[in-house]
TrEMBL record:
SUPFAM superfamilies: Barwin-like endoglucanases (SSF50685)
Domain Expansin-like EG45: 25-127
Domain of life: Eukaryota
UniProt name for this protein: Expansin-like EG45 domain-containing protein
Keywords: Signal
């Protein structure tokens, strides 16, 4: 019984720590995946993202994986765009028009966490 309580407390604490280090941002989506800034014409699958210049950091983010979760809407188009869950995407490209804490997700990745009709969502992300 005591071991179960310790394990439950450890699990709760780890969840709180990972959420407290999450960074707020926004996400959009795109549909043309190659060529990419990081990998040229090599197909990297669909769980990918283009990162803002601040995150991309002159290609330093190429290949990095980020966990992303939808937290809300940015417009009145879709009132509840978020779907349950979190995704992990790999940075393969630069999104030159993105804001500082923004990812341009593949349409497939975006669709896993939000309704694509929203177009833009609020997110939390961490590495």
């Amino acid at each position: 019984m005591a071991i179960e309580r310790v394990l439950i407390l450890a699990l709760v604490a780890s969840c709180l720590i990972s959420m407290s280090t999450a960074i707020p941002g926004q996400a959009t989506f795109y549909t043309t995946y190659v060529p990419s800034s990081c990998y040229g014409f090599q197909d990297q699958g669909t769980m990918i993202a283009a990162a803002s210049p601040a995150i991309f950091n002159n290609r330093a983010a190429c290949g990095r994986r980020y966990r992303i979760r939808c937290t809300g809407r940015t417009n009145l188009g879709v009132l509840q765009p978020c779907r349950n869950g979190e995704i992990t995407v790999r940075v393969v490209d630069l999104c030159p028009g993105c804001q500082a804490n923004q990812f341009d997700l593949s349409q497939e990745a975006f669709s896993m966490i939000a309704d694509p009709n929203a177009g833009r969502i609020l997110i939390e992300y961490n590495e």
